[in-house]
Design brief:
Elements: E1 4-7, H1 17-20, H2 23-31, E2 34-37, H3 40-50, E3 60-63, H4 70-76, H5 78-81, E4 87-90, H6 103-111, E5 115-118, H7 124-132, E6 139-144, H8 149-162, E7 168-173, H9 178-188, E8 194-199, E9 207-212, H10 213-218, E10 232-237, H11 247-251, H12 254-258
Amino acid sequence: MTGTLFVLPVPLADADPRDVLPPPVLTIAREARYLLAENARSARAFLKAAGHPGPIQQVRIIEIGHQPQVSQALEWLAPLRSGQSDAALVSECGCPGIADPGATVVACAHDLGLRVRPLVGPSSLWLALMASGMNGQRFRFHGYLPRDASALADSLRRIERDALGGETQMFIETPYRTERLFQAILAHCADSTRLGLALDLGGASETTLTRRIGQWRALPQAERPALQRRPAVFLLHSEGPPAKASSKAAAGSPALRRQ
């Protein structure tokens, strides 16, 4: 018999795991003796918050980082192949392998013939899509968009074209660049396109809003949600050819042109 690789979701924010995770996830977390974790420190904090009964220092935790190599994954999975142990795979927040590291480890587990068992838990992408009111039958996730201003503008125009057939387009950004991305969307996308923002999902300040770009532009700055340093999922959706963007929007803001 070989061991099982449990793909274990964790909370998205600083919520109590017992409030947001199903009982089977908590059971696996409390029984865990071997973890493959994106970050060892956050994994220890998760185990403690989940109610792990016994000294956390005795749990073997391997930090896989952001881009684990196949050779490393095969080494980490050796105890499962010999039947000596099960393992739980966790990211810093949400679900491993979905906009987070972990796919390499899971792929190697399949190559080794190990059992892979995913457990239900919070994913920022699925929560954002559920709350957006956009098409959940056809959608695409683009990950992070380019940082260069010109490349970013090109990407946004291409993504908007892809949204014309009704397919929801989703992407993310690091918290300290969310405001910049929001301003770029307003500068380069058409009034009729719908933009959804999902902020701080799973946290006390969770905010989900969907408006047409024209409505976002017309909204006074004081009435717009604060974006800086907040985890965010962006969603774009359109159900027909967008009206031509205004000349002011197409030109972009002075701040964007300088970047």
